[in-house]
Amino acid sequence: MSSTAIPAPRISSTSSADRLNQSCFCITLDRNALCRALERESEDPAFCAAFIQTKPHLFSNVPVFLPSEAIVKMGKIVVAIEEAARLPAYRAAVLSWAPEIAQEDHGPLGAFMGYDFHLDDDGPKLIEINTNAGGAFLNALLARAQLACCAEVEGAITAARASDFEAEVVRMFRDEWHRQRGDTPIPRIAIIDDRPEEQYLYPEFVLARQLFLKAGLDAVIADASQLRYEQGRLLAGDLEIGMVYNRLVDFALERPEHAALNAAYREGAVVLTPNPHNHALFADKRNLTLLSDPAALEAFGASPELRAQLAGIPQTIVVTPENADLLWHTRKDLFFKPAAGHGSKAVYRGDKVTRGVWTEIAGGGYVAQRLAAPGERGQDRRRGRGAQDGCSSLHLWRAHSAGRRATLSRADDEFQNAGRRIRLGIGRLTTLRPIVPEPPGASDAQRTRLTAAGARRKMLFQGTGSPANFSRPV
């Protein structure tokens, strides 16, 4: 399942990666090449002008350098989470607080599951899991539009250009379909969101549609509120939909405008990926309170090795009236998030929380997570930059293949777990950066092979809920 062996660029140590992040500001992005690629893939000569040039901070010009051992650790944490999610006692616990619609497993594992990490001196820390992760389609083209401005970048660029991203995506969606429908052919796929053309990442909806069409799969982009469910068929206009690539943030399909999709999903009339069951098992932030609790994991039957891998998740607890006073007094070391939230909406650093905001948090529906500070990319004093170039979070996408054997190999360019592939990638609604991986100290045959991917600029929110002002990308 792995691609052709391509040695990763040599960076001798973690300290070398840190040094490059603080001092290397070579511009690697060829924006003209990126625009040509986007226009070619979208089959629209005006695509870049209409959707990319209007978002000047979507792509960063400079890379992030990442030690290979950090990538390996992140992969192991993801593998451990997915292993924990198969424990019957753990599943029963997380489904106990999930909505009724999430209880039934229709088969799909969830396309493009996302795992967000902060990387500090103690290694990667998983801060949350997302079932509506975006950016993969844009990132695939970003990775192929890089210039080798230094030796450390050259190997990553070569690996990116050899990526079989498109084939893997098509295979992932075919597998999702077959998990619910067996060997029947895939009918029309709808890429759905609310008011899709107004979404910041609408450009990748277009790229996804074109990728499906080129693979011989009929595909449309549709507004979820305009879907209809009639006589056992889900319709977008007059077109019947058999499969939905779901980009909604209404994870339980509770809003009235999503009633048609809700009914079709409940009755098994459509293959929905990701779906409410996937969100309940992985992305509800209350799950982190169990995954970060060694005693709970032991009670669920997790092995010592599994518990050790999950130590990469910062301690998380549910905010309750009983612990609210203690959490208020220790808030400077905490980060507060709504249990059913997404992106960075209504999240607060404890040291920025006001009394007014705390009343909302203490009212319930929040979790408190031990603060794991994001890494800093450094500054470019030659360009008059500020004290830092923003804070970077790392994002892993998990795709999946038809395989079933769980493996974790440093000699492969992906981690495979129960047939799922994990790739380093980017987050949503933020600046996309290429990542240059550092190989571990081993022979060429053993070095980790990783496609050049991306990182996302993490927007830390102040007590008012407004984003902090970080300096622009180069």
Portion in helices: 25-40%
Total helical segments: 16
Which structural class fits the helix and strand makeup?
alpha+beta
Quick one: overall form?
Answer: globular
Main beta sheet strand tally, sense and closure: 9 strands, mixed
Supply Rg. 22 Å
Number of strands: 20
Mean pLDDT: 78
Instruction: Give the terminus-to-terminus CA distance.
Output: 37 Å
Q: Which percent range describes the beta-strand content?
A: 15-25%
* Spans of at least 5 consecutive residues with low confidence: 1-12, 380-391, 401-430, 438-474
Q: How would you describe the oligomerization state of the chains in this entry? A: single chain
Helices and strands in order:
Layout: H1 14-23, H2 31-42, H3 47-52, E1 64-67, H4 68-84, H5 88-95, E2 113-120, E3 123-130, H6 136-143, H7 151-161, H8 165-181, E4 189-193, H9 202-214, E5 219-223, E6 227-230, E7 233-236, E8 239-241, E9 243-246, H10 259-266, E10 271-273, H11 276-282, H12 287-291, H13 294-300, H14 304-309, E11 316-318, H15 324-329, E12 334-338, E13 348-349, H16 355-362, E14 366-370, E15 375-376, E16 391-400, E17 415-417, E18 420-425, E19 432-438, E20 453-458
Parallel strand pairs: 1-19, 4-5, 4-9, 9-10
Antiparallel strand pairs: 2-3, 2-16, 6-7, 7-8, 11-14, 12-13, 12-14, 15-16, 16-18, 16-20, 17-18, 19-20
Architecture overview:
- Helix content is 31%, strand content 20%.
- It has 16 helices and 20 strands.
- Strands 1, 2, 3, 15, 16, 17, 18, 19 and 20 form a 9-stranded mixed β-sheet that branches. The chain has a 4-stranded parallel β-sheet with strand order 5-4-9-10, covered by helices on one side. It has a 4-stranded antiparallel β-sheet with strand order 11-14-12-13.
